[in-house]
Amino acid sequence: MQQPKIKVTDAFWQQYRHLVKDVMIPYQWSVINDDATVEIEQENANSYKATEKSHAIQNLKIAAGRESGDFYGFWFQDSDVYKWLEAVAYALRYQPDQQLQQIADDLVDLISQAQEPDGYLDTFFQLQAPQEKFQHISFGHELYCMGHYIEAGIAYFETTGNTLALTIATKMADCINTHFGPQPDKLHGYPGHPEVELALAKLADTTNDQRYRDLAAYLINQRGQQSPNFFAEQNAKNKNKQLDLPFPDQTDPADRYFQNDRPIRELDHAEGHAVRMTYLLTGMAHVARQTQDDDLLATCQRLWRDIVDKQMYVTGGIGATVAGEAFTYDYDLPNDTMYCETCASCAMVFFAKQMLANEPDGDYADVMERELYNGTISGMSLDAQHFFYVNPLEVDPQASAQDPTKSHVKVQRPAWFGCACCPPNLARLIASVDQYIYTIKDDTIYSNQFIANHADFGDGLQINQSGNYPWSGQISYQVSVESALTFAFALRIPAWSQENFTVKLNGHPVNGTLKRGYLFLNQTWSGTTTIEVDLDLSVRTVRADQHVTADLGKIAVQRGPVVYCAEETDNGKNLAWLSLPVQPDFQVHSANQGLAVPNLKTITTNATKLVTSSNQTSTALYTSDTAPRSRQNQQVTLIPYFAWANRQAGEMRVWLDQD
Ligand code: FUB
Ligand code: ZN
Fold first, then answer.
1. What's the helix, strand, coil split of the chain in %, to 5?
2. Crossing angle of the two packed helices 142-160 and 78-94, in degrees rounded to 10
3. Taking ligand 2, which is a single-atom ion, which protein residues have CB atoms under 5 Å away?
4. What are the catalytic residues?
5. pLDDT grade, residue 130 (50/70/90)?
6. CA dist., res. 615 & res. 254, Å (int)
7. DSSP 588
8. Statement: the pTM of the whole predicted model exceeds 0.85
9. Cα(422) to centroid(ligand 2), Å
10. Is 580 a residue whose pLDDT tops 70?
11. Ligand 1 atom 6: the closest Cα is on which residue?
């Protein structure tokens, strides 16, 4: 059995994947080439600087000597280009396109020309501060950018066989290996923004070159080891230099923001910048497997539990505060000031995938599913040309406009950002969603996601999964083998359906107990076997742990993996005045409320809403009136959270009051 070749046939994901291939990729290409007329928004009132264009490709052209000029834009936006290239690599697998491949081949040539002979590539430092390479590791992002290229180079090589794409990646890794490592003449540091660790681990798998695995392990293990801290030491050296850098050398760099206040294995709480933390964990989980490091795996398990049990929103969003785009403390999950960066939700999918490869456990796949159907794709509009960086669970347009502490909470998705990390991250995630459906371990095929597809596992084994998920809970698998084959097929039963589901094998009910969220069908398979699964898609109300004070007295509505929300467009203003009964009468509708998603289901429920009482005479802000407030019945319409902000701007809420 080998990693399957998968053709996604799923209506839900086909729509997204075609949007990526036909709209997002061309759109993002025109933006990074400055051909599109787009308004670029600042992420929040305090963000680094307003930019009028991306300039990302132009920076590469200047570094390659093809054009003259200065570096412009965010100092790490080479990575926007690399994530775009990675998305193209995946998209070409499901929709070959000669013209697009030619554009991507030319881009690889350009990147190769911009790369220095020793493998170094970071257009910001090359153009703006060539003497300062690797001297500002806390905020410099060189390793982050190169890590993103390494991922793209691997993907593009694997799709097209373009060896130059891979050579650029190995040259980069060699360059990093020359500069970083335990030897006395090397830098004993690690990236301010983890990313390269996960990329080097992938490169070790692709090339079978263990130096890359060792380097990834070094960068992980070195984190937070040194006293004085590596960043502090480096920054102290820079103190008297006259530098013109757009970012500060952190004065107190040994802090939780960077996850380097102590050796990484000592962490028991996910802390600091959420994308940094989860990219790091993704790399750690991969390296733990490669090096059979149980202690490192235990760290990943511990931090997974902390995030999922105490710091994750019901939408899968992570990062409770805009200050440092960071985790805060357990159960601190404010709904209207949170961060929930799109990249952080993508990173949780990457982390979950690595954990599943380490130890199949339905919880990893459940969280992956939560992210895939909620907190990731909420980051893009249904026209695929507008994007959220921050994914709130509660929005009031007036607050976003007038409360300076909520300037990051956008009411509608902007066309692009100065710091545009999220849009291409989503593109590469959606284009590679096929990689999240199955894992294979010890002669067992684990079915993690209900994404209809045709999978060829080699050895004459094919599995055809069909269904209309997430709108229907009926999924069917046709397992076909050319000659009899013994293996286990482990079917994830999502936690939300574990009390009510059926599985039939060739029409006969299967009654097995679940092991870590999976139902194991272990047998010798011959001919074609049909497995039919029926999950419980009744509408559910969800409440948060009582320590989450932001959600006390409130419920969220979920159907299958999809979290729902109320929007002003359907329900009028003052969503805070709504209250759902203890046992709402939910109705599921095929009316899509003007949202262009095939088969989309909306939900209505009975509810009440506060009204201004006719005998309320006082206009005082505070009164001693103790009479119950007046309420009137109102039907409430709920739409999937991922589809919010695709109509008129207005209020939105995931958590609603309950009587
Ligand atoms: O620093 C690079 C990227 O920009 C991070 O991953 C995002 O959180 C944003 O800060
Ligand atoms: Zn981002």
1. 40, 20, 40
2. 20
3. 341, 343, 421-422
4. 325, 421
5. very high
6. 60
7. E
8. yes
9. 4
10. yes
11. 275
Whole-number Å distance, alpha carbon 573 to ligand 2 midpoint, is 30
Q: Which domains does the chain have, with CATH numbers?
A: 23-32+52-236 (no CATH), 439-467+473-535 (2.60.420), 539-614+623-658 (no CATH)
| Burial degree of 535 (CB within 10 A; 0-12, 13-18, 19+) | buried
* Nearest ligand, measured from the Cα of 273: 1
Tokens 């004085």, located at residue: 228
Q: Name residue, tokens 């293990």.
A: 221
- Of 637, 628, 613, 626, nearest to 659 by C-alpha is 628
- The pLDDT, as a whole number, for residue 182 is 95
Nearest of 220, 204, 372, 326 to residue 282 by alpha carbon: 220
The preferred substitution site among 144, 193, 282, 318 for testing ligand 1, maximizing ligand atoms within 8 Å of CB, is: 193
Which residue minimizes the CA distance to atom 8 of ligand 1?
275
pLDDT in the model for residue 251: 56
Q: Which residue CA neighbors atom 3 of ligand 1 most closely?
A: 421
Residue 253: which pLDDT band, with cuts at 50, 70 and 90?
Answer: low
In this structure, the residues whose C-beta lies within 6 A of any atom of ligand 1 are: 76, 193, 275, 325, 341, 343, 419, 421
CB 234 within 8 A of CB 136: yes
For residue 532, how far is its CA from the centre of ligand 1 (angstroms)? Answer: 43
DSSP, collapsed to helix, strand or coil, labels residue 560 as coil
The residue among 497, 537, 495 whose CA lies nearest residue 517 is 495
Asked whether residue 402 carries a pLDDT value surpassing 90, the answer given is yes
